[in-house]
């Protein structure tokens, strides 16, 4: 489970870079533009990943095998991502959270950079979310 959570950052980076900013851009693009309403087409990805996690858990719950624990790991990563990304960074749920630790400031700066460099002309930079290079340290 822990290995899955850690691995998910790499999986998320690859999916974000090559799927969301590749052939899945038509679903992800509204995440990089202001849109009215509570939901975005980009939320389709959360639905897909949630369904995958649910299926891994549901179909492997009797044996509690590795696929079950992978499903739990994917779900926990998803919860963390939702809190970091959708709630704290994009404020899709109202909160007064402001990053105080150097780690959280670095994460926020890297994600801001990602949004500044992503558009229809190019995929942008900095695709992870729970890890960000030290080059984004705020001095």
Q: Output the structural class.
A: mainly alpha
Quote the average pLDDT: 85
Provide the β-strand percentage band. Answer: under 5%
Secondary-structure element pattern, one letter each: HHHHH
Count of strand segments: 0
- Outline the low-pLDDT stretches: none
Radius of gyration from the alpha-carbon trace, in angstroms: 16 Å
The rounded distance between the terminal residues' Cα atoms is: 35 Å
Largest sheet: none
Helix content: 55-70%
Q: What shape does the CA trace take?
A: globular
Number of helices: 5
Plain-language structure description:
- The structure is a single chain.
- This protein has 139 residues and is an all-alpha fold.
- The protein has one domain.
- The chain has five helices and no strands.
- It has helices at residues 2-23, 25-28, 43-58, 66-89, 102-117.
Features:
0% strand; 5 helices; mainly alpha; globular; 139 residues; 59% helix
Short account of what is shown:
By secondary structure, the protein is an all-alpha fold.
Explain the layout of strands and helices.
Layout: H1 2-23, H2 25-28, H3 43-58, H4 66-89, H5 102-117
């Amino acid at each position: 489970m822990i290995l899955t959570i850690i691995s998910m950052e790499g999986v998320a980076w690859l999916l974000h870079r090559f799927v969301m900013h590749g052939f899945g851009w038509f679903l992800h693009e509204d995440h990089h533009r202001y849109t009215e309403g509570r939901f975005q087409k980009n939320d389709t990805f959360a639905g897909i990943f949630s369904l995958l996690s649910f299926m891994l858990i549901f179909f492997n719950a009797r044996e509690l095998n590795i696929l079950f624990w992978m499903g739990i790991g994917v779900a926990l990563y998803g919860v963390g991502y939702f809190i970091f990304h959708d709630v704290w960074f994009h404020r899709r749920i109202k909160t007064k959270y402001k990053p105080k630790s150097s780690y959280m400031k670095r994460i926020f700066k890297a994600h801001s950079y990602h949004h500044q460099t992503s558009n229809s002309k190019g995929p942008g930079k900095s695709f992870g979310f729970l890890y960000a290079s030290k080059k984004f340290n705020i001095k």
